[in-house]
Amino acid sequence: MIRDTSGQDVQLAPQSPWKNPRLLKQVGLGIVASAFVVWGLMSWQSTTAVDARLSLSRINIAAVERGDLVRDLVVQGKVVAANSPTLFSPAQGIVKFAVKAGDTVSAGQLLAQVDSPQLQNQLAQESALYSKLSVELARQKIQAKRQRLENTQKADLAKVDLAAARRELKRAKISLEKQIIPQLDFEKASDDMARAELEHAQAVQNAALENEALSFETQTLELQVSQQKLQMEELQRKVNELHIVSPVDGTIGSLATTQRAAVAANTPLLTVVDLTSFELEAAVPENYADDLGLTMAVEVTMGFEKLPGEITAIAPEVINNQVIARVRFTDGQPANLRQNLRLTARVLLESRENVMLVKRGGFLDQTGGRFAWKLNDQQQAVKVPITIGAWGLNQVEIVSGLEVGDQIITSAADELDKAQLVALKD
């Protein structure tokens, strides 16, 4: 007989699934796994929303504000003598110095003498020629007076002959009327009268022409004498310049040659340094050369003192990518200045009032001043295009792209190179 399976079944009482520890463990693991999945999705979405992340401790942030911008330039310079003339030899010769390097001299003091026999000889020759021409001029004036007297005498004699001819014609006319003389004698008297008038007119004209020629010859000699006098005075000036004197009160800077050396004309001999007047010689970078101008204001820092000045000269050439500018102190010579003293100068290139400003930083060099990263209310920085204007020492002008009160990242960072949106974290 086959037995059934009824004897194998066991009836169990129903239980709550939440009381099964194995099931609870599986549900807990599922919840944790779901949480990790959700967190990963959120992290992935956050990562794809921003291009980079930066710590606030690594960057500098500045706010855009409105104010006055002073466009300036800080350069280094050295104090130099404003007046340091170099004296040259006026002619070829032997130089004899009367001073040594470092001697203190006054204006007009003899510094050196150049012995030039050639120049002295030329002066003597020109002086002799001047004396000769002066004597010839005096002789010409005497000769002109004598010739004028002779011309006047000839004209006066012709006038007397004319008067005599007129009287003779008058007597001949009366005699002809009384038939005392023949007609032939009357006609001869008339011819004598006409000849006398002609001779008198010619004598007067010749006297005028002779006097004019004499004046011309005298004037020619006077011009020659004047020309020779100028040449003699020029040589005399050159001879006087052989005695070289100091143009200013100062100190002998250096001697360019030795005692009793043979020098050529226009050879530098020595330098006189005027220590009573100083200027600042500032080296300005080449890219600022076009912005410089005469009388431009400069602020010179000497210790804790600010000294006002102005640019008085700008060198036309560029040396070692720099342009040399001379700065004069406008409020008088400051005390304790000495040559070659190093000072800092602040050149005031431009001043703009009531413009948008932001602090200068590395972001300008990183983007060329075309973009900035502006902070939003979600602790993020958004890349925005900007337009900058004038550059100051500590600030830069913002023309467009930002508003007053906006905060931007002013420092540079590698993460910002290709980032459009940057997340900021503490």
TrEMBL record:
Top-level taxonomic group: Bacteria
UniProt keyword list: Coiled coil
Domain Multidrug resistance protein MdtA-like C-terminal permuted SH3: 363-414
Localisation: Cell envelope
Coiled-coil blocks: 135-245
Protein's UniProt keywords contain Isomerase: no
Pfam families: BSH_RND, RND-MFP_C
Domain Multidrug resistance protein MdtA-like barrel-sandwich hybrid span(s) in chain numbering: 94-274
One GO CC term, this protein: cell envelope
Keyword Kinase: no
Family: Belongs to the membrane fusion protein (MFP) (TC 8.A.1) family.
Stored PANTHER family: EFFLUX SYSTEM COMPONENT YKNX-RELATED (PTHR32347)
Protein name per UniProt: Efflux transporter periplasmic adaptor subunit
Organism, scientific name: Microbulbifer agarilyticus
Classification of source organism: Bacteria, Pseudomonadati, Pseudomonadota, Gammaproteobacteria, Cellvibrionales
